[in-house]
Amino acid sequence: MSEPELSVQGLDAAYGASQVLFGVSFDVGRGETLALMGRNGAGKSTTLKAIAGVLPPRAGQVILRGKDMAGRKPYRVAHSGIAYVPEDRQVFPEHTVEENLEIAQKRGLDGTAGWTIPRAFESFPLLLPLRRRMAGRLSGGEQQMLTIARALMGNPAVLLLDEPSEGLAPLIVAEIGRLIRKLRSAGTTIVLAEQNSRFCLAVATRVAVIDKGGIVWHGDVEQFHTDPTVQSRYLQV
Amino acid sequence: MDLGELVSCVGSLSCLVTQVSAGLTIGLLLFLVASGLTLIFGVLGLVNFAHGTLYMLGAYFALSAYAATGSFLVSTLAGTLGVATFGLLIERTLFRRIYGADVLMQLLVCYALILIMDDVVKIIWGGDFLKMDMPDTFRRPPFIIGGGIVPLFYLVLFGVTLAVALLLALCMGRTRFGRTVRAAAVNSTMVASLGVNTNMVFAAVFAIGAALAGLAGALSAPIRSVVPGAGVSILIESFIVTVIGGMGSIGGALVAALLIGLTRSFGSIGFPLFTEGLMFLMMAVVLLLKPSGLAGKHPA
Ligand SMILES: Nc1ncnc2c1ncn2[C@@H]1O[C@H](COP(=O)(O)OP(=O)(O)O)[C@@H](O)[C@H]1O
Ligand SMILES: [Mg+2]
After folding, report:
1. A77 contacts in chain B (CB < 8 Å)
2. Does domain A6-235 fall into CATH 3.40.50.300?
């Protein structure tokens, strides 16, 4: 494998005195979609927070295209090319859809400005008629699309998505799955925290399974699909 | 109490014009200070008890700059930009550490700053009442409108403050910077995750708030005495304005500041001994009827 786009090495993270991540390590190749799977409380969200710098890691490295990001402030991590969509979406409720996108607009690592507001509406056509609506008045699915579109406005190299399918109706989940696959084919590297195996199998190329704050399995999505023990051991309740 | 006097004033156009123009002057200066106070509270979660000190510094900076250059433009800019710079300095060193902290902690830090700056001012400018000369350009006979007296300088003051209020509203409502500030006020972590250096945004907001107080101080220097401790009374009035207008609302601050200005101006005729009390009374009434203030959304 050539140099990975994102390489997470020995990541430790804690909330105050309680340590949650114990040496989390995985690689993601350029243009791949890695599904980070695990039970509720396994440490998926914490891993994404630590990569994004929202929860500064206690130890370990977050190497993006050869540069270590660990310990950088969230805005620096974002500038370095990592975009983060948190679990609870966090749209700016009293800003319109368009304003939510505008706030996030910036050039990418290599000065690219491929993602613009018009292109976002092209790729997320459902948002177009809502562009002047307050984000707080959108449905859950619409808000999820908005947060993904908003993250893309920074022209990231790597997109971190925390449970994008959570709590959404099946039709919307399918639509979001389509969007993620489209992003992948456009070359965006994606790390996806998920509990929903069906969704993962539909969108991911690689899988890493996390349990009690450590990676316990990783491999291609096909291997994951055909390995009966990993699913029963680490994912079912 | 002299209600007869008040009634006869309201009945006479000349008295009405004189008092309204005086009231608007008080109100608009107050608005400049209060809008900064409310902006800093709304975005940074800081109750800036030292905001009056910034106003006082603006007056002193303007005074010195005017003495040195004789230019009103220079003195106004010196008061505004000087205090903005000072604000940036204390924001980076002191205030950024107490955003969102316990109000008692904020009070402690601010009170220390008030005491220190009052003494610094005494050392540099002395403890006496000072007054900036009225610039020659504005030393003209006042306008007589409907028999009432309106000094030219008042009109300058109306123009400048209204222009600044408009600029502030446009900046906060219609620019990307303003939208980012409002988003950061609600969820700064998310704004930072989108690549915005929120520390810079917060520093800029504090500097803008400080600049507004400095401008108010500079504009007041030719018409009010400049003295150590001058910040205290305007601070209290600004708090009344933000409470009446609704904490965090700039539009509310404008309405409330004008209300207070007019209350002071007419109150000084009708209730010369109770003008201060009248302001508190108004605040109490607003709090009873609408606890979140005139423009407040959330209950206080
Ligand atoms: N803000 C927090 N403070 C303290 N503990 C937390 C916090 N967030 C999560 N945890 C704990 O960290 C562990 C991992 O949580 P999380 O990363 O959210 O898991 P997942 O996303 O896989 O469901 C859990 O035991 C959870 O209770
Ligand atoms: Mg989670």
Report:
1. 193
2. yes
